[in-house]
């Protein structure tokens, strides 16, 4: 299916929100069903689940269509980003498209002519934040009827969300998803011309488009996508539905992008994917994985390379062997475990056991003795017992992670876990989260304390948030360091002696002039 056929078949144009803009919220549910039937086919998580065999097409021919050039003259855009780094990076691409259309960026919603909310669907509270924000923006939209307000990102891929926006927030002008951000010029143009809500959400992923413009946030650190989508289908997770099937970018494109960033003076690259360890598994013509890619990138003259996020199941020996070469490949590995109980892991469909995870950790620690590990953990998965939760605590102690992102399980409509009966009361889940967080803090504090008196390399990002006289930056193991130093150190890697470990951060003093490590 070519792009035009896809647009015609999957795009839903519109739900009429001109006359209905006011009345849509007053409709009865019967009216509503009829209304949807006539004008609107929602995005479908069921369709999003399908994994077709069709080959991914790669395109290098993105152009701003002639008729849209200058559309943004005299107009300003504002994008608010929720969620993960993938979303942050999508925002950079959309900012690139806006600028190519002639729009200017603005830091505040008040003077924006277009506002986009780039949303996250991972947990209910992420979604609630967006609905709350829409509530706030309603007043602004009333004040400025010409303002265009759009919702994009992962939430747009969910039928229930689109329906709720139609019902409760009919003043939204456009909704588009994660697979068609390159269609932003067309969507904007339609939204300007039409009095109706423009909805263009593709349930199935599209092709890989290589040459989209990007405006990166900052000039020190950069995100580089290496793959899109996820095929793992952990039972709690919405991502395989909102981001589609796994599609890897070709290595030569990635290497070219990293080389360009190095030439522009960027100091740190983070390779991005929902499951970076599955990189290359979809290539039909070669056997090439993340280890091979990292080995190539290792040779590029750029001081720091990170990658995120890993899945323990696909983390292979080749990658460990390459990471052990060190140099610009940083020894901080984020390795989400989710639970320390093999029984829970099985129901989560993580496809590894506690023992396999611990073996992997051992392998990594043997090959890279100074590696720092961080993780993600979900507590209160349906029917998680006290004993199973205790296993999570004991695994945490055994691995001694540097830190962790911890979450209470949040049912996501359309996922298998959301259909499971759950006998764990919310009170118990909250208490488990508190106990886990206490352990995370305890070990984290202990690990930070070990830094006192040591010298670390810090990539200086700018002034500290709380004190403009103090500089702040991150170590190779992603510890935030505050120290006094010359402003000329910003953007450089400098050596800092750690004087004091605080709860979450380190205080230090610069020990030399700015020195590049590599
Ligand atoms: N509920 C709670 N946490 C979740 N995560 C993913 N899905 C859910 C969910 N339904 C967490 C996982 C993942 C991180 C990005 O978010 O720990 O690694
Ligand atoms: Fe949120 Fe996942 Fe989408 Fe990232 S990919 S924005 S974490 S739902």
Automatic annotation (TrEMBL):
The keyword Iron applies. PROSITE patterns: MTTASE_N, MTTASE_RADICAL, RADICAL_SAM, TRAM. It is found in: Cytoplasm. Binds 2 [4Fe-4S] clusters. One cluster is coordinated with 3 cysteines and an exchangeable S-adenosyl-L-methionine. Residues 75-193 form the MTTase N-terminal domain. It catalyses: N(6)-dimethylallyladenosine(37) in tRNA + (sulfur carrier)-SH + AH2 + 2 S-adenosyl-L-methionine = 2-methylsulfanyl-N(6)-dimethylallyladenosine(37) in tRNA + (sulfur carrier)-H + 5'-deoxyadenosine + L-methionine + A + S-adenosyl-L-homocysteine + 2 H(+). Its main location: cytoplasm. [4Fe-4S] cluster 1 binds at residues 84, 120, 154. It comes from the Bacteria. Its cofactor is [4Fe-4S] cluster. Residues 449-512 form the TRAM domain. InterPro entries: Elp3/MiaA/NifB-like_rSAM (IPR006638), Methylthiotransferase (IPR005839), Methylthiotransferase_CS (IPR020612), Methylthiotransferase_N (IPR013848), Methylthiotransferase_N_sf (IPR038135), MiaB_methiolase (IPR006463), rSAM (IPR007197), rSAM_horseshoe (IPR023404). [4Fe-4S] cluster 2 binds at residues 230, 234, 237. Residues 1-23 are annotated as: Disordered. It is an enzyme of class 2 (transferase). Residues 216-446 form the Radical SAM core domain. Gene3D superfamilies: Methylthiotransferase, N-terminal domain (3.40.50.12160), tm_1862 like domain (3.80.30.20). Keywords: 4Fe-4S, Cytoplasm, Iron, Iron-sulfur, Metal-binding, S-adenosyl-L-methionine, Transferase, tRNA processing. SUPFAM superfamilies: Radical SAM enzymes. HAMAP family: tRNA_metthiotr_MiaB. Belongs to the methylthiotransferase family. MiaB subfamily. Monomer. Catalyzes the methylthiolation of N6-(dimethylallyl)adenosine (i(6)A), leading to the formation of 2-methylthio-N6-(dimethylallyl)adenosine (ms(2)i(6)A) at position 37 in tRNAs that read codons beginning with uridine. This is tRNA-2-methylthio-N(6)-dimethylallyladenosine synthase. The lineage of its organism: Bacteria, Bacillati, Bacillota, Bacilli, Bacillales.
């Amino acid at each position: 299916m070519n792009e035009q056929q896809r647009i015609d078949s999957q795009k839903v144009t519109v739900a009429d929100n001109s006359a209905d803009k006011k009345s849509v919220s007053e409709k009865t549910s019967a009216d509503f069903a009829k209304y949807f039937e006539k004008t609107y086919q929602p995005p479908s998580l069921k369709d999003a689940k399908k994994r077709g065999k069709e080959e991914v097409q790669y395109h290098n021919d993105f152009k701003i269509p002639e008729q849209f050039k200058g559309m943004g003259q005299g107009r300003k855009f504002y994008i608010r980003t929720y969620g993960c780094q993938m979303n942050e990076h999508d925002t950079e691409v959309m900012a690139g498209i806006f600028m190519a259309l002639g729009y200017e960026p603005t830091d505040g919603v008040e003077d924006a002519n277009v506002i986009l909310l780039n949303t996250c669907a991972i947990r209910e509270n992420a979604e609630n934040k967006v609905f709350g924000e829409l509530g706030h923006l309603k007043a602004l939209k009333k004040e400025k009827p010409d303002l265009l307000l759009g919702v994009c990102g992962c939430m747009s891929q969910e039928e229930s969300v689109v329906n709720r926006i139609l019902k409760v927030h009919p003043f939204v002008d456009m909704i588009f998803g994660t697979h068609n951000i390159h269609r932003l010029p067309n969507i904007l143009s339609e939204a300007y011309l039409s009095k109706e809500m423009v909805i263009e959400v593709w349930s199935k992923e599209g092709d890989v488009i290589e040459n989209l413009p990007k405006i990166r946030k900052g000039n020190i650190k950069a995100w580089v996508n290496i793959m899109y989508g996820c095929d793992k289908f952990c039972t709690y997770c919405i991502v395989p539905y909102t981001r589609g099937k796994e599609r890897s970018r070709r290595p030569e494109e990635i290497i070219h992008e990293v080389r360009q960033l190095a030439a522009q003076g960027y100091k740190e690259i983070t390779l991005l994917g929902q499951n970076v360890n599955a990189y290359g598994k979809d290539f039909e013509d070669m056997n090439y994985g993340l280890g091979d890619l990292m080995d190539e990138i290792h040779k590029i003259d750029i001081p720091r390379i990170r990658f995120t996020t890993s899945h323990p199941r696909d983390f292979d020996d080749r990658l460990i062997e390459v990471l052990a070469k060190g140099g610009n490949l940083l020894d901080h590995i984020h390795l989400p475990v989710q639970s320390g109980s093999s029984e829970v892991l099985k129901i989560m469909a993580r496809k590894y056991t506690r023992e396999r995870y611990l073996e992997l950790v051992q392998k990594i620690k043997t090959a890279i003795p100074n590696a720092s590990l961080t993780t993600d953990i979900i507590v209160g998965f349906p029917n998680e017992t006290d004993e199973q939760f205790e296993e999570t605590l004991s695994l945490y102690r055994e691995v001694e992670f540097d830190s962790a992102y911890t979450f209470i399980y949040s049912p996501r409509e359309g996922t298998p876990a959301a259909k499971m009966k759950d006998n764990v009361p919310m009170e118990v889940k909250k208490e488990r989260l508190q106990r886990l967080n206490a352990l995370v803090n305890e070990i984290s504090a202990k690990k930070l304390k070990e830094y006192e008196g040591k010298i670390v390399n810090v990539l200086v990002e700018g002034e500290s948030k709380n004190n403009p006289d103090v500089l702040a930056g991150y170590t190779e193991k992603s510890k935030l360091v505050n120290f006094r130093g010359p402003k000329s150190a910003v953007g450089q890697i400098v050596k800092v002696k750690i004087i004091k470990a605080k709860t979450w951060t380190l205080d230090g003093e610069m020990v030399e002039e700015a020195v590049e490590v590599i």
